[in-house]
Amino acid sequence: MKFLDDTRIPDHPYPELREVLNDHANKIAAELGENLVGIYLIGSIAAGDFDLNSDVDFLVVTINELTEANMKPLQDIQIKIHQMDCYPAKHLEGSYISLGDLNEWSTVGQKKLYYFDNGSTTIEKSTHDNQWHVRWILRERGITLVGPKPETILPPIPLEEMYDEIKTTMLQVMKLFQDEIDRPLSFWNSRFGQSFTVLTYCRMLHMLQTGTVQSKKAGVKWAKEFLEPKWAGLIEGAWEEREGVRFGIKIGDVPKENKWNNRNNRKRQRAR
After folding, report:
1. What distances in angstroms separate CA 234 from CA 78, 187, 199, one per listed residue?
2. Regions of the chain with pLDDT less than 50
3. Residue-level pLDDT at 251
4. Which pLDDT score, from 0 to 100, does residue 255 have?
5. b/e for 223-252, b at 16 or more Cβ within 10 A?
6. How far apart are CA 201 and CA 220, in angstroms?
7. Which CATH number fits domain 6-152: 3.90.550.10, 3.90.76.10, 3.30.460.10, 3.30.750.24?
8. Closest by Cα among 95, 71, 68, 81 to 16
9. What is the pLDDT of residue 261?
């Protein structure tokens, strides 16, 4: 299959990505038939910062809303792709949304969509991709595999709504982080969770500053340049901790006094 935005699909760091996307898109298109509007890539790959630890975010838009029965063969496709022996096949993450729901402003952040989490073959119902910032990156940066360009099926996103969503998310993440920090091991107090929080905040602050949705990598670069210098060590350490998360070993790992924590402790001691 020749993708509409074929030139935007990176050959590095995973040359097999194109084969995975081709198989995935072909199977979905064949299954959905005339109910398919389009298949799009979003997330870091659309932002141009796809790397060794990125997942492959996709969004499938349909004419009619899918049912649980419709999703069963699509789950089978997800399982078949996951069986391919390569990284991109095992890190697909995405949702299915009807054209009506995509353009229904009143249910953004509320209505749950059929969703496959990163690397999962289990169907969930989640608002993960029914968000303003996802619509923004779809319309402004989305990579079209099959179907019309996203700007022809989705009007401009109201920035005030996206700003409110970001601010609300920042408060929610802060509360989750604070509630778990001294509790037994869970997501937010794991090595992955702590670095994820720092990088996500960099990204959200960057979004609020620029009115655009960029990758964590872009958020880190911006934060190191424009935030107070005292945060540089924490941000650098969080980015270092992100490296290797593709192996899944840090998500359930206890935070430890690693080199970036030690570096920050030394800085605090010198400041006394």
Report:
1. 37, 19, 10
2. 257-272
3. 53
4. 54
5. beeebeeebebbbbbbbebbeebbeeebee
6. 9
7. 3.30.460.10
8. 81
9. 46
